[in-house]
Amino acid sequence: MLKDKILVLGIETSCDETSVSVVKLENGSIEILSNVILSQDIHKIFGGVYPEQAFRKHQENMIIILKEALKSIDIREIDLIGVTAYPGLVGALALGVATAKTIGAILNKPVIPVNHLWGHLLVNFTNLPLEYNLQNIVGLVISGGHTNTYIIKNLIPLKIEKISSTLDDAVGESFDKIARILNLGFPGGPIIDKLASNYKSKTSRNIKPLFPVPNPENYNFSYSGLKTAVSRYIKNNPNFNLEEVCYHFQYSAIKHIINKIEKIIQDFEANFLLVGGGVAANSFLREELENLQNKYKIEILIPKPILCTDNAAMIAIAAIFLYLTYKNILQTFDIYPTEEEGNQIWYSTK
Ligand code: KG4
Ligand code: ZN
Questions:
Q1: Residues 6 or more apart from 5 whose CB is under 8 A from it?
Q2: Which of 26, 121, 235, 273 is the most exposed place for a label (fewest CB within 10 A)?
Q3: pTM of this prediction?
Q4: Which of 269, 286, 302 is the last residue of a domain?
Q5: How far is the CA of 176 from the centre of ligand 1 (A)?
Q6: Does the pLDDT value for residue 1 go beyond 50?
């Protein structure tokens, strides 16, 4: 049982959210004290994340967000700093890491380089005791940049292995691309989700799928074929019903995830599933996961929507797990665009 109180400052700048958070670990339980998130609007103009603009907006807003997150907390009480070091846009990551290292140097506190994707999984431990006895845990991260599954072999010490990923587009990326084709705006996920729900609420008959559900080999994902099928349908049916197309695209995109995760639950005999990432906010996905939970009598942990999207609380929480796992805290570290490169930080640490 962890008795001491630890205050952790989290910093997230890997993509288009500038976020700073303070999280408290006390009596083995994690509580979020602040979690300020600024979603950069500038990318709406481009219909996707523009890396240079992302970096410039992070540098413009970081101090404002930092001050807001620390409004009612004395920065000298911070014991530990967690920052996203990978994966992400290099310039954007560098801004967050430089901020974290500077604060760490001034306060003389350790700075932990965090895998953003592990953050999406571990944020599920908000308000849960850390000794929460989980075994046979699998993880699903579905976001604008990733569609990954994991096996969480152990929580403390933390041991996570990747099972599968996407062969082409990430699921969130495919929502964003279809939204762009349909002129719906960016990010596409929440807009398509809403239009799909409208269609479903108006249609009482049994709906026959319009697009095939992708099924590449193994546990992997693929979204490029679905994108082509939707584009072709729109081209061949100029008077298409927008809500109907959104419904059917979403149906196939989400069913693909559900089918793969169902297979993983069976094959790995999972008792727990941790879900995270922006697409985890999707209403149809949440319904389908509830069905899986009932069918397999497993426990599915999924964050409330504000903690699905990129945020710094998840980074602070993952930093706690890493801090408790690796007794030797690193003196310095680099930033990495990919998860595989970044994980070498930990795999080479004794
Ligand atoms: O995790 P996140 O905030 O950033 C990345 O790390 O990528 O995820 C953003 C992605 C975007 O592609 C967005 O369209 C998608 O999550 N998204 C959704 C929904 N809300 C956000 N996709 C489907 N349904 C939603 N309700
Ligand atoms: Zn993310």
A1: 24, 25, 26
A2: 235
A3: 0.95
A4: 302
A5: 8
A6: no
